[in-house]
Design a protein that fits this description.
CATH topology: GMP Synthetase, Chain A, domain 3
Radius of gyration: 28 Å
Number of domains: 1
CATH architecture: 2-Layer Sandwich
Strand content: 15-25%
Oligomer: single chain
Helix content: 55-70%
Order of helices and strands: HEEHHE
Strand order of the largest sheet: 1-2-3
Largest sheet: 3 strands, mixed
Structural class: alpha+beta
Distance between the termini: 85 Å
CATH class: Alpha Beta
Amino acid sequence: MVRKTGMAGFVAVTVILVFVAAFFCAETVLGGCGRSNRETEEYYMAKERELTDRVREFLNGEGFRDSGVMVTRVVEEDGSREYTVAVHNRDIDALEESEREELLAELERLTFSGDRCSFRHQFF
């Protein structure tokens, strides 16, 4: 009788340990993915802030102070990112078309490097 009780206890402890091990393995795998995605998003958010600041500095240097600068993104399922850099300034609106195109060409040089990132610049 002692032998049956000892065997049942051993089986119960083994089953519990298997469940605990499976739980910790699943949390390790899932938690690692979450951290990686979070780190990637934090990286791109920092790059987006830097880009916004660089665009503002450039526009200030060109005499277009207090310009509205907005950087938006669309992230596709495959991880590719499409950024739109939108600029608004009344003085830019008053420029002739050729001057606006020249300014836009200079702005289009302001991007950051990233895997599968594309950029579009526009004036509002």
